[in-house]
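Give me structure tokens for this 290-residue protein.
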Amino acid sequence: MNDQLRGLGTALITPFKNDKSIDYEALDRLIDRQIAEGVDYIVVLGTTGEAATLTETEKSEIQQHVAQYVCHRVPLVLGMGGNNTAQLTDRIRKTDLSPYAALLSVCPFYNKPSQEGLYQHFCAVAEASPIPVILYNVPGRTGVNLLPETVMRIYAAQPGKIAGVKEASGNVAQIKELIRLAKDKLWVISGDDGITSELMEAGAAGLISVAANAFTSDFRKIVYNTGNEGAALQQRYAELVRLLFVEGNPAGIKTVLAQMGIIQNELRLPLVSNSEQVRQEIREAMESLQ
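Here you go.
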């Protein structure tokens, strides 16, 4: 079990300029802010990073830029997933993953594979990867649910290769069952800002957070303070967390970061910025936290 992957990880956004090109100055400001506020590790090129709308060249440039800029100040996790197993494993083999502590790989989307298909897919990913793999279960985006029994089957077939699971199914009972089965074997990481306190109380290893892009120190407190203190702080953020996702991710967190003056509020199609109504609701929710 890799202790580097305990605690709070931020699912890093990709800032864009008005012309939709990557804003590396804003990206560096955001990284510095994360580290100063105590993030344990950073996840690069995940869903929140809008990886689906980046070219392969852009993804390679971001991957290298972040690794060089962070320069070992915190561990890094790289998002690499896909629904063509052969193509994905070929990409993994051809990518220099040496600056990264782990690979975050989402369940294949659109194809809707069976549990056997998920098992074989992730075994192939683990075999191709020179670094540990974090499985990423997010049925709301992929259309498939990676069941706890399948996770443990993958773990058993790939000893030492599966570091953990980012669980974003929203199914608390399922996640708790996975925590029970995975005890002392692999980390179960919350992929949902809104239920982290409950999952930490149940034995989760931490959180990969969208909200931590803006509120790093407070979400670190939620992760590290189990019991009433963590639950109370999470409840305080409940409305804002809801608003972050009401018109899709990362529209909400980019609205927050733009209102904080850290980035420009730009996304790439088919994603668009929040409506004026939601921007106003987010502004009011942020003011209520002060």
